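Why does residue order matter? Because the sequence determines the fold. Keep that principle in mind as you read this record.
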Amino acid sequence: MSTLKALVVGAGGAAGGGQSGTVYPAGGGGGEVLYNAALSVTSQTYSVTVGTGKTYQPSSQVAGDTGGSSIFSTITARGGKGGGDTGIWGKGGTSGNTTYAGGVRYLFAAGGGAGDGATGSNGSTNLGGNGGDGTANSITGSSVYYGGGGGGGDNITQGTNGQGAYGCGGRGNTGTSANGVVILSWVTADFGTCSVTGAGNAITTNGADSIATFIVDGNFVCNVPTASNPSFLLNFI
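Structure:
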């Protein structure tokens, strides 16, 4: 048995929860961001699910849809909630980890959705609330934010999305939310040849590490050394 690093991010929630003639749609919540720095794996084919973003909800008094969950092995990252998910119109969506709340409206300006790492901002005069920031992670070798909240809608200026592209909540006036992502990293020399399936999914290298990035559903074919496999023993002599 060997270990690898796994980052699993749920999809963002869709913008929604506006009210005709009263307030614009609110930003969606960012997807949950989960990280395991030493996840045990064995030689097998793992199914990988990448949560899908949801379409903007323009209808009055209808909350945006919750983003899809992303799954790898024992890790399930939940999708962010849609704008208006609490039944308060103009209030930004809750984060997928349910820790942070969306911002509230001010007149026509809707609140921003919560990110995985911060609450959404409230709307203000002629400005939708900004989405809360997501959570930073360096699994790829660089620090990147994931799971930001979507900015709230307004008739003058929409709020900006929080930091975190993958798993970002939908932006108020037009915001379809972003898909999640699954990223795996392992020390290349400690594993055999691994592969992935799924259009757009790929394995790259960063120094001594291999990195598999899943942007759609697929499989991870994992090959780890065993004492009974002579081809691996050569690596340790």
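The chain has one domain: 1-237.
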